[in-house]
Amino acid sequence: MLFGTMAAPLAAQTPEPPIWVVEDDNSTIYMIGTVHMMRDGVDWESPELAEILDEADSVWLEIDSFEPPANLFGLIMASGMSPDRPLSSLLNEEEMAGLQTILDEHGVPLDSFDGLRPWYAYLQISALMLVEAGFDPEGGIDMHIKARADQMGTPVMGFETFEEQFETLSGMDEDVQLDVLRQTIIEYEEAKTELVDQLESWIDGDLSTLETETAEIAEELEGFYDVLFVERNHGFVDGIEDILDGKGTALVAVGLGHYVGPDSIPEILRERGYTVERR
Q1: Is 152:54 a contact under the CB 8 Å cutoff?
Q2: What is the rounded CA–CA span in Å between residue 250 and residue 24?
Q3: What is the C-alpha separation between 53 and 251, in angstroms, rounded?
Q4: Cβ-contact 56, 250 below 8 angstroms
Q5: d(CA 209, CA 66)
Q6: Contact yes or no for 158/61 (Cβ under 8 A)
Q7: Are 13 and 252 in contact (CB under 8 A)?
Q8: How far apart are CA 61 and CA 141, in angstroms?
Q9: Which of 23, 166, 194, 258 places its Cα 20 to 30 Å from the Cα of 71?
Q10: What's the start-to-end Cα distance of the chain, in Å?
């Protein structure tokens, strides 16, 4: 569900991450995948992407700013905490033991975690995994793209707001939240070896491992998949159609998982009658 972890250095070769293109008479939209954390020294930017960034009239990310909102604490308290339904009352003994093991590795007291709602606990565990593996929370591809766009004076817009993302995650049924939390706990160690394959393959232009993982999420975590991928992908495509109503060249950069599978952004665009080219 994340895309990155610790591994041997990537092979020294020109990166070729996939780029999708959709256009009409007066608009061209390039679409690429991003990850929110990246290891230092990983070469992911292809020459073609660098050229697109130079010529883009606008850049569209999931959100347009990475600065925490002023009401972040209130959002966490309102939608991320549930002291009246602690995790210890929702997970079984084996699951709690697995959670304890993960938290012990990072020196995080279980008591400080117990009052989190399952969706927020899942996010925190996922972040711990990436930081443990040497990923920089300030080094995401989306952050890099925004910094480049800001340097060039290119407008940066967001399809979603920070608050909307919180609402999407916190609005999942509790059973769905628990399903993804349980799987994250159970597969924590295994994921650290699998996720790097997805990232390396993507950089090489091969989406097969990412497609396999996304298909597994759709099958094993259907509710989570519907909320995090299907519904949001339709929202992204609505936004892309709005961009096409204008003119010029735009770069759309959202998470890798939104570009693979039958419910992906490219497939939804095709279903709506657009020709989508992959480069």
Answers
A1: yes
A2: 12
A3: 7
A4: yes
A5: 29
A6: yes
A7: no
A8: 10
A9: 258
A10: 25
Distance CA 159, CA 150 (A): 17
CA separation, residue 109 to residues 61, 103, 112, 113 (Å) = 35, 7, 6, 7
The 10s digit of each residue's pLDDT in 114-152 is 999 999 999 999 988 888 777 788 888 999 999 999 999
Give pTM, 2 decimals: 0.92
Kindly state the tokens that stand for 171.
Answer: 């609005």
pLDDT tens track for 179-207: 999 999 999 988 877 777 788 899 999 99
Using H for helix, E for strand and C for coil, what is the string for the chain?
CCCCCCCCCCCCCCCCCCCEEEECCCEEEEEEEECCCEECCCCCCCHHHHHHHHHCCEEEECCCCCCCCCCHHHHHHHHHECCCCCHHHCCCHHHHHHHHHHHHHCCCCHHHHHCECHHHHHHHHHHHHHHHCCEECCCCHHHHHHHHHHHHCCCEEECCCHHHHHHHHHCCCHHHHHHHHHHHHHCHHHHHHHHHHHHHHHHCCCCHHHHHHHHHHHHHCHHHHHHHHHHHHHHHHHHHHHHHCCCEEEEEEEEHHHHCCCCCHHHHHHHCCCCEEEC
Residue type at position 186: I
